[in-house]
Design a protein that fits this description.
269 residues, mainly alpha, Leucine-rich Repeat Variant, two-stranded antiparallel sheet, 12 helices
Length: 269
């Protein structure tokens, strides 16, 4: 390595080789890229993911940005926009979400189904949800277990008892996750016609399914002690099972004979 003479005590200081101009330029560009704000794309356009997060935080639907992104060619953007709409729980966005229930991308499909359930949870009985119920019932035929599970959960959140029969059929699913969520959805639907199918699943091989099948009632009186509704004693509850799960029975003003169970889930232990 060549050196340069210095008058300071006659020392020779090494002269470092000058970097190649191309390498220096590449290094400078790399540093600029690292220092560039992450909220912008290379072309300087706003980052769509960041825009979705801002719209969600501001609960902004009216400008149509989120619904527009539901039609994006990027599956990740479709999924993220659907999730944002579900979190906002905006009932005016049901129709744009319906197309995503059959989306070829599993992520977008899952978020759309979840979003419909969230909207139904916030707007039970809304007329705008009739089309959502039909789409979710069709989704039960999907070959994707996760889609079926989310659709079962969403139907329970919608609270439309016309879906009871479709949800009851999912108690026979090969997936314990679907069976368990079907039991929970039936608890939400509170349809007394589902009582017998739920009782039949108290012997399910999966402990979570057994727990969820029994969680809608707790034997606080002799009314709910029987495994069969046809054998329910009549001592304290007229001659019918509870008219409304989690509410007062038909033998009012006596205390309710069925109430929500507080037994912990076996998976929480």
């Amino acid at each position: 390595m060549k050196g340069a003479w210095s008058s300071c005590e006659g020392r020779t200081t090494p002269t470092l080789p000058r970097p190649h101009s191309g390498a220096a330029l590449a290094l400078a560009l790399a540093l600029l890229d690292l220092l560039a704000p992450r909220g912008a794309t290379a072309a300087g356009a706003p980052d769509p993911m960041r825009a979705i997060a801002i719209a969600e935080d501001q609960r902004r639907i009216a400008d149509g940005e989120l619904t527009r992104l539901l039609g994006s060619t990027d599956a990740a953007l479709r999924a993220r926009a659907a999730l944002a709409i579900g979190r906002i729980q905006d009932s005016t966005s049901v129709d744009p979400l319906l197309a995503l229930v059959t989306d070829k991308d599993a992520g977008a499909r899952h978020e759309a189904v979840f979003a419909l359930g969230q909207i139904g949870l916030a707007h039970p009985g809304s007329a705008t949800l009739a089309a959502a119920r039909s789409a979710l019932e069709r989704a039960l035929a999907s070959a994707d277990t996760a889609t079926v599970d989310l659709a079962v959960e969403a139907l329970g959140k919608l609270g439309d008892r016309t879906s009871t029969a479709a949800v009851v059929r999912q108690l026979e699913s090969h997936s314990p996750l679907v069976r368990g969520d079907a039991a929970l959805a039936l608890w939400r639907l509170a349809d007394s016609t589902a009582m017998e199918p739920l009782l039949q699943h108290l012997d399910d091989p999966d402990p979570e399914v057994r727990w969820r099948s029994s969680a809608w009632s707790h034997p606080t009186a002799s009314c709910c002690a029987s495994r069969s509704t046809s054998k329910i004693p009549t001592g304290g509850c007229a001659r019918t099972p509870c008219a409304r799960w989690g509410g007062r029975s038909r033998c009012a003003p006596r205390p309710t004979c069925c109430r929500r169970s507080m037994i912990p889930s076996p998976r929480s232990r």
